[in-house]
Amino acid sequence: MDTKTHWDKVYTTKAPDAVSWYRAHLETSLALIERAVDSCSASIIDVGGGESTLVDDLLLRGYNNITVLDVSQSAIGLTKRRLGAAAEQVRWLVADITKIELEPGAYDLWHDRAVFHFLTDREQRTAYVRQVARSVEPGGHIIVSTFGPEGPTKCSGLEVTRYDAESLHREFGARFRLIESSKEVHHTPFGTTQQFLYCYCRID
After folding, report:
1. pTM greater than 0.90
2. Residue 53: pLDDT band by 50, 70, 90 thresholds?
3. What is the side-by-side strand order in the sheet with 44-47?
4. Which domain does 51 fall in, by range?
5. Is residue 20 part of a domain?
6. Given pLDDT bands bounded at 50, 70 and 90, which one contains residue 1?
């Protein structure tokens, strides 16, 4: 089963709050975004946005230049229906982040919660980092969250790679300046916990 088919199946067979990564509000992401950019016109891309409520909360805070990308058309469709008329304020992209060609320098801030750790193949990770380096403006911000060292080894039936701050930053390279990192204990809808790592970088 290819990546797109896998995630379309997940999003069409499970309710939004019946997946392990569900969180009503991404408080850590929101706090980092608000600290990183001081203008509501900043161009923000949420990679692997799926059915995340991050886009809802960004719109409520007045951000008006938002792109949501996901490989699953089903996830994008469900999120657009949830937002209703507000969905017209968002740019939607259905694509594999390792294959699409995003516009050069298009974004001031890149956000990814729980995509990068699924890229277990080095070529995929290289393509992802190349994509970030190309599409984020010099001086721009990158917020990436993966499973931490004590996080799960599999998610949604797929193998994942766990990271600490040093190993995650090493994947991106010296051009990405690590500003800060933190770990977060995520409480799943099933009563279990998952350790997430957040890294916030600036690109030179």
Report:
1. yes
2. very high
3. 90-94, 66-70, 44-47, 107-113, 136-147, 193-203, 176-187
4. 26-181
5. no
6. low
